[in-house]
């Protein structure tokens, strides 16, 4: 098993080199076994700036530092460390992590290094795919907006059961006030302990519910599943067919006029249009027509 030799950034010797006891060894310098930083840069085909950067990382500590001139010297064998640095750069492995893959006998565990590189690469691929999915969602939204412009009639949206983290609704009179209110909802969801990645790129807006002659409105942020510990802060929105329409004016306050007796569930969200007007965004209202439970 590879022993991790990463110190707390207090290394006085290069952890990949201290076995050779070169630092401070005047005899080696006198025998011309060490190279100046300029010579070392030339032979290793690296810039002096890069070598100093590696030293700052604690990866490539000089084999010897002249106590009087503070000149730095390196052993030719340390060029191997630069080859490792090049490999790690190609694999996106931070140089500060390299000592974890070197054992007491100065042997690099290549299999472990490649496994770490694979994990890093797969995490990046996941992040990239998430970004591509978000782009697709926005592109589909723009298509829906363009279709509505050509035929401004209501349309049907089929949705599965959804879960909203909610905060109490306070009526706002401007888009800036609405965004401030939504910001408070985002702060509340963060304080609740739900990780950002759980609700990143999911919908947010206003949730309206009219039932038993009682009207309830909330600001909401969609989350991927129930969080029992949050209790009533999480609302379950039924699956079903929703009637959608778009407007540059908020429609949520007019929903209560749809009926005086029947239950109403409605969701209003800001959606992208092209061009997107920051001061007067486009809204989409979705009102439940038929629930999957019925």
List the helices and strands and how they pair.
Blueprint: H1 26-30, E1 34-36, H2 37-44, H3 48-56, E2 64-65, E3 72-75, H4 79-91, H5 110-150, E4 155-159, E5 162-168, H6 175-191, H7 196-199, E6 204-211, E7 214-223, E8 234-237, E9 240-247, E10 264-271, E11 282-291
Antiparallel strand pairs: 1-3, 2-3, 4-9, 5-7, 5-8, 6-7, 6-10, 9-11, 10-11
List keywords for this structure.
eight-stranded antiparallel sheet, Multidrug-efflux Transporter Regulator, Chain: A, Domain 2, Multidrug-efflux Transporter 1 Regulator Bmrr, Chain A, three-stranded antiparallel sheet, 33% helix, 294 residues, alpha+beta
Give a written overview of the molecule.
This protein is α+β, with helices and mostly antiparallel strands. It has two domains: 91 residues, Multidrug-efflux Transporter Regulator, Chain: A, Domain 2 (Orthogonal Bundle), CATH 1.10.1660; 139 residues, Multidrug-efflux Transporter 1 Regulator Bmrr, Chain A (Alpha-Beta Barrel), CATH 3.20.80. It is built from seven helices and eleven strands. The protein has an eight-stranded antiparallel β-sheet. The protein has a three-stranded antiparallel β-sheet with strand order 1-3-2. 20% of the residues are buried.
Would you kindly provide a brief summary of this structure?
The protein is α+β, with helices and mostly antiparallel strands and 294 residues long.
* Individual helix count: 7
Q: Encode the helix/strand succession as letters.
A: HEHHEEHHEEHHEEEEEE
In whole angstroms, how far apart are the ends? 60 Å
Q: Which CATH class of the largest domain is shown?
A: Alpha Beta
Sheet having the most strands = 8 strands, antiparallel
What structural class do you assign from the helix and strand content? alpha+beta
According to DSSP, the number of beta strands is 11
Percent of residues in helices comes to 25-40%
The overall pLDDT average reads 84
Number of domains as seen in the coordinates: 2
Strand order of the largest sheet: 4-9-11-10-6-7-5-8
CA radius of gyration: 31 Å
* Share in β-strands: 15-25%
What fold name stands as the CATH topology of the largest domain?
A: Multidrug-efflux Transporter 1 Regulator Bmrr, Chain A
Going by CATH, the architecture of the largest domain would be Alpha-Beta Barrel
Shape: elongated
Low-confidence regions:
1-15, 17-28
């Amino acid at each position: 098993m590879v022993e991790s030799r990463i110190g707390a950034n207090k290394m006085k010797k290069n952890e990949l080199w201290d076995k050779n006891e070169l630092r401070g060894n005047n005899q080696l310098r006198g025998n011309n076994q060490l190279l100046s930083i300029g010579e070392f840069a030339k032979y290793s085909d690296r810039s002096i700036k890069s070598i100093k950067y590696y030293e700052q990382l604690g990866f490539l500590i000089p084999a010897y530092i002249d106590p009087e001139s503070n000149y730095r010297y390196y052993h030719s064998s340390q060029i191997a460390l630069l080859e490792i640095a090049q490999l790690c750069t190609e694999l996106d492995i931070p140089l500060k992590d390299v000592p974890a893959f070197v054992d007491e006998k100065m042997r690099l565990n290549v299999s472990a290094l490649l496994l770490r590189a694979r994990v890093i690469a797969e995490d990046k691929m996941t992040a990239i795919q998430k970004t591509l999915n978000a782009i697709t969602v926005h592109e589909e939204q723009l298509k829906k907006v363009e279709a509505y412009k050509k035929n401004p009639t209501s349309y049907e949206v089929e949705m599965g059961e959804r879960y909203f983290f909610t905060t109490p609704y306070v009526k706002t009179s401007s888009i800036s006030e609405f965004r401030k209110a939504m910001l408070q909802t985002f702060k509340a969801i963060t304080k609740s302990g739900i990780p950002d990645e759980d609700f990143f790129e999911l919908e947010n807006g206003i949730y309206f519910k009219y039932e038993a002659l009682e009207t309830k409105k909330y600001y909401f942020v969609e989350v991927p599943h129930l969080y029992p510990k949050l209790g009533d802060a999480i609302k379950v929105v039924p699956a079903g067919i929703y009637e959608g329409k778009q407007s540059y004016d908020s429609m949520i306050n007019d929903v209560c006029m749809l009926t005086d007796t029947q239950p109403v569930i409605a969701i209003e969200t800001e959606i992208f249009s092209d061009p997107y007007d920051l001061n007067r965004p486009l809204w989409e209202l979705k009102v439940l027509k038929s629930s999957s439970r019925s």
